[in-house]
Specification:
Helix content of chain B: under 10%
Strand content of chain A: over 45%
Largest interface: A-B, 21 and 28 residues
Shape of chain B: globular
Largest sheet of chain A: 6 strands, mixed
Number of strands of chain A: 10
Structural class of chain A: mainly beta
Oligomer: heterodimer
Number of helices of chain A: 0
Number of helices of chain B: 0
Radius of gyration of chain A: 13 Å
């Protein structure tokens, strides 16, 4: 199962674009890369998933290079409410592997 | 519509007692997952079901932990002879059919004294 590595914490200011990079050197051929967001005292919430190249939805963009050994979650114009822990996940559909996540702090 | 619900939300029990944690998934969701989350850590996979069949229980820490989903809907995670190290947030999630997008419940905070 793919082990992921991401920064423990990041700071940003309101209105900035935030990019969180995750490495997953041994991701399996069939695995997708998935990102979740978790606010304090709540369960994780799905943000986005992708296999390769670029995926965009109303919340974020996900960039995955051709070798798939890393991925970058991009949050455009963050606000205070984006302060949360962001998890990059490897693993198969039935067995998602959460790491420690990146604690993003957005300041005014 | 209703999301994933879990009960009880908080459970305090004495060491050695058995506890049963309940998860009510989103109606119609085929897949149901159990996780355990320690403070400051990401959720740790325990087990998952498709319908009533347990597909993977590799994350269950030991044989004191068991889970069932007899009718393919509600699931129960049972911990026998609880120990203090079992104290954690236990989270349940469901997905339409084994999707990467899982919907998490509010969790059950278990404290073993």
């Amino acid at each position: 199962l793919a082990k992921t590595t991401q920064p423990i914490s990041m700071d940003s200011y309101e209105g900035q674009e935030v990019n969180i990079t995750c490495s997953h050197n041994n991701i399996a051929t069939n695995d997708y890369i998935t990102w979740y967001q978790q606010f304090p005292s709540q369960g994780p919430r799905f943000i986005i998933q992708g296999y390769k190249t670029k995926v965009t939805n109303e919340v974020a963009s996900l960039f995955i290079p051709a070798d798939r050994k890393s991925s970058t979650l991009s949050l455009p114009r963050v606000s205070l409410s984006d302060t949360a822990v962001y998890y990059c996940l490897g693993g198969s559909q039935g067995n998602l592997i959460f790491g420690k996540g990146t604690k993003l702090s957005v300041k005014p | 519509g209703a999301g994933v619900s879990q009960s009880p939300r908080y459970k305090v029990t004495k060491r050695g007692q058995d506890v049963a944690l309940r998860c009510d998934p989103i109606s119609g969701h085929v897949s149901l997952y159990w996780y355990r989350q320690a403070l400051g850590q990401g959720p740790e996979f325990l087990t998952y079901f498709n319908y009533e069949a347990q597909q993977d229980k590799s994350g269950l820490p030991n044989d004191r932990f068991s889970a069932e989903r007899p009718e393919g809907s509600i699931s129960t995670l049972t911990i026998q002879r609880t120990e203090q190290r079992d104290s954690a947030m236990y989270r349940c999630a469901s997905s339409p059919n084994g999707d990467y997008e899982q919907y998490f419940g509010p969790g059950t905070r278990l404290t073993v004294t």
